[in-house]
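Work Package 4 report. The design task specified in the project plan requires that, given a folded chain encoded as structure tokens, an amino acid be chosen for each position. We show below one input record used in the internal validation round.
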């Protein structure tokens, strides 16, 4: 991949394609762009910005993407719906990857690829001198080629249908990461929010085997280092650790419990 001077390379895509690991976390509620500096300072590679289960506006998403890029963190946004115009707009305001939830067919993937890439590979609409290009002025064909090569496509498999169709979904290429949505997947299997239920782990292992066959990275969100160790053993290479709300709540609760214990006689 020939670089374009001044435009950020998608280091997560590069790492995963090289067979390396990428580590990140979720942002779902804290709206200050400063959180991207914290994430960068901690050493994470990427941040999933959740626009499906949050109150984030496009303005908030754009500001977060700008700060993430400035800090060297790859911003990956999960839109609330699969829409070509929305995908285009989120990319234009700085997202370097998009995650689409509940993918169940190859036709969906083909459509997502068309939306997220410039012609001739896709139908993404053109803009220039914006966040997606880090405000760099360069030959249009060179820029668009580089952005197409750097775009990270993440799909979530979180239904029984998705698990059953996983080989067909991945067979045509173009998917960089399959993120297993264990919350919805557990609900689909009749064991809501039991992320480590045998049915859920069996489905995850089935997805992992398909990802290995098709050369696609596997992603899972982990709530502890112990769980991350197990997921890595199962083939996960794109590891997201918890989210800012849970991390803060657990830290606050541990602090209060610790302080309260000091006053017990």
């Amino acid at each position: 991949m020939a670089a374009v001077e001044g435009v950020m390379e998608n280091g997560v895509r590069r790492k995963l394609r090289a067979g390396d690991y990428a580590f990140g976390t979720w942002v779902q509620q804290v709206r200050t762009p400063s959180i991207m500096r914290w994430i960068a300072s901690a050493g994470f590679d990427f941040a999933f910005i959740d626009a499906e289960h949050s109150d984030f506006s496009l303005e908030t998403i754009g500001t977060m993407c700008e700060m993430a890029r400035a800090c060297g963190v790859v911003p990956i946004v999960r839109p609330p719906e699969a829409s070509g115009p929305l995908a285009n707009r989120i990319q234009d305001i700085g997202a370097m990857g998009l995650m689409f939830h509940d993918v169940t067919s190859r036709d969906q993937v083909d459509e997502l690829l068309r939306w997220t890439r410039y012609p001739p590979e896709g139908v993404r609409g053109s803009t220039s001198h914006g966040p997606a290009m880090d405000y760099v002025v360069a030959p249009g064909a060179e820029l668009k080629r580089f952005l197409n090569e750097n775009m990270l496509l993440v799909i979530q498999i979180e239904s029984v249908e998705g698990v059953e169709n996983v080989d067909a979904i991945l067979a045509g290429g173009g998917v960089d990461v399959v993120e297993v949505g264990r919350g919805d997947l557990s609900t689909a299997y009749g064991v809501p929010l039991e992320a480590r239920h045998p049915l859920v782990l069996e489905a995850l292992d089935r997805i992992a085997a398909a990802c290995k066959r098709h050369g696609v990275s596997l992603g899972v969100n982990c709530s502890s280092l112990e769980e991350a160790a197990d997921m890595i053993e199962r083939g996960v290479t794109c590891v997201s650790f918890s989210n800012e709300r849970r991390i803060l709540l657990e830290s606050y609760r541990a602090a209060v419990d610790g302080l309260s214990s000091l006053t017990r006689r």
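Residues 11-262 form a domain with the TIM Barrel fold (CATH 3.20.20.60). Validation will be extended to a larger panel in the next phase.
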